[in-house]
Each structure stands twice: as C-alpha cells, then as structure tokens.
C-alpha cells in the first residue's frame, strides 16, 4: 500500500505529464518505489521515504547502480 507521501509524489509527477508506475515486486530487491516515464525525458526512478524513515544500504546501492547505468534515480523524503 502506498504511503500518503508516495501518493502525493505519484499525483505530482502525473500532473507533470509523467506515466508513473509503482514498482511493487521486482526480481531485484531494493529497486526504487516509482518509475516515471515521459516522452522525450529519461526514465526517472524514485524512492519515497516518510519523514522518519531512512534509506537502507541496498536501496542506496540500487540507486547508485541505476545512475551508473545512465538512469536518473533519486530518493525523495517527506519533511514534517
């Protein structure tokens, strides 16, 4: 189930014209939560974290791995 913060991010990126996929279960653990696609833009992977949550080592590794492959990958954290 998507967190409130994650749901807000989905709505934000969809309002910007992105097609947003919530990645629930993949063959690679630690993959970011969202994949945002938009014509003419590189794919964007987003890990969404609540204000009190932290990026796990595997999640950090996957974000760096995606960047090394040439993809945009970020972690967005809610601020409260």
Overview of the molecule:
The chain has helices at residues 4-15, 57-68, and strands at 19-22, 34-37, 44-49, 72-77. It is built from two helices and four strands, in the order αβββαβ. By secondary structure, it is of the alpha+beta class. 30% of the residues lie in helices and 25% in strands. The protein has one domain: Trna Endonuclease, Chain: A, domain 1 (3-Layer(aba) Sandwich). The chain starts with a helix and ends with a strand. The protein has a four-stranded mixed sheet with strand order 1-2-3-4, with helices on both faces.
**Helix and strand run:** HEEEHE
Flag low-confidence runs: none
What is the CATH topology? Trna Endonuclease, Chain: A, domain 1
Could you tell me the mean pLDDT?
A: 95
Biggest β-sheet, characterized? Answer: 4 strands, mixed
Integer count of domains: 1
- State the distance separating the first and last CA atoms: 21 Å
Compact description:
This protein has 80 residues and is α+β, with helices and mostly antiparallel strands. Helices cover 30% and strands 25% of the residues.
């Amino acid at each position: 189930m998507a967190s409130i913060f994650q749901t807000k991010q989905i709505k934000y990126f969809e309002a910007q014209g992105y097609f947003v996929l919530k990645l629930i279960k993949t063959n690679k653990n630690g993959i970011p939560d969202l994949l945002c696609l938009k014509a003419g833009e590189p794919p964007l992977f987003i890990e969404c974290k609540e204000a009190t949550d932290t990026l796990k080592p595997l999640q950090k590794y996957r974000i760096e791995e995606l960047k090394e492959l040439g993809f945009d990958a970020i972690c967005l954290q809610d601020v409260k």
